Amino acid sequence: MPEMPEVESLRVFLTDKLVGRTITRLDVVAFSALKTYDPPPTALYGLEIDGVTRHGKFLDVSAQGMHLVFHLARAGWLRWKDTQPTAPPKAGRNPLAVRLHLDDGSGFDLTEGGTQRKLAVYVVADPAQIPHVATLGPDPLADDFDRAALAALLAKAGRSQLKGVLKDQRVIAGIGNAYSDEILHVARMSPFKPASSLSDDELTTLYDAIRDELAGAIRRAEGLAAKDLKGEKKSGMRVHGRKGEACPVCGDTIAEVSFADSSLQYCPTCQTGGKKLADRRMSRLLK
Asked: Taking every annotated instance into account, which residue ranges of this chain make up the domain Formamidopyrimidine-DNA glycosylase catalytic (predicted)?
């Protein structure tokens, strides 16, 4: 799933490609992806794009008071094309969900793999009309997201587990499964540690890890084309997706906790005092 660093990199990439161009057509191939119907996609036709912004993991293409907003979900991606096919795409068993056409013949495709269809596209006059945007928590790289702001969020979360708190878009916007694993590894904290149990020093450590990991991932992606961002994300991971490999810090074997539809990875030596975690329901390791 693309998370905040990849979405921010896509924002920069699209800003260069889109601003000043005019939308000529929007082909909706997978109708399940379109979550709004009023105004219709045709309301974007003939409008000049004036900006690309990010709301957590949502990308927002603005054009003269209208907004094309999309969330790539778990298996979605954006594919840029300097020359888009002119013939209307056919619906069928292909990953194409939405195709945007611009006045110079270029544009992008929104695609989605897998069997689950969760990619979401909205055409709205105001992004705040989208419930999941309206309820987003603060951006962790915003200037006003300081240590005190994080402390307040963790205190409000109570004994909820850190992993879940970091992933909750209503608490902090933009962090997902992968970067929460990386942040907790850098902070040397168990994913099951209660959010409100951090000492002052641990709070500072976690805050620094959040800012440094996300900013570092964005820096690594600078100048990359959209097609190269997935590879950069994977290559930069130390523990996420690396079950069975050696921890690059201590050399211990990276372990995994599996859930119904996801999993987390961690280093027992770095994060849990050498103890292996069971699943979320059975683990008694809360420190």
From this structure: 2-109
